[in-house]
Specification:
The chain has 113 residues and is an alpha/beta fold. It contains 4 helices and 5 strands, in the order βαβαβαββα. The chain has a single domain, classed as Glutaredoxin (3-Layer(aba) Sandwich), CATH 3.40.30.10. 36% of the residues lie in helices and 25% in strands.
Length: 113
């Protein structure tokens, strides 16, 4: 897995997400989801570009349904931006790389205001 990209499990959720000192963006996905398969490489390609600014995490809704439920994920792919464990933004569906980069940059700008 790429640098700055974490695979979310029940065991690491508290430390990696809730107690993170930096903002986190979680990609909620599933192996059977075609749009997720399109979004995955885009998400993973951006992860190294944001090292030190925002942590990238992937959560398979089949493996951690209770975490998906906690965030009320109803459609996938869903990307949820958190700061200190609190949701600050959400994007649903496939977003091309330039659009996703812009949305992440805007979310980070809001956090720095």
């Amino acid at each position: 897995m790429a640098e700055n990209l974490i695979h979310i499990t029940k065991e690491n959720f508290e430390d990696e997400i809730k107690n993170s000192n930096e903002p986190v963006i979680i990609d909620f996905w599933a192996g059977w989801c075609m749009p997720c398969k399109m979004m995955g490489p885009i998400f993973e390609a951006l992860a190294p570009k944001y090292s030190g600014k925002i942590k990238f995490a992937k959560a398979n809704t089949e493996e951690v349904p209770e975490i998906a439920q906690q965030f009320e994920i109803q459609g996938i792919p869903s990307l949820v931006v958190l700061n200190k464990g609190v949701e600050v933004d959400r994007f649903v569906g496939v977003i091309p790389e330039p659009g996703l980069k812009q949305k992440i940059d805007e979310a980070l700008e809001k956090l720095n205001e």
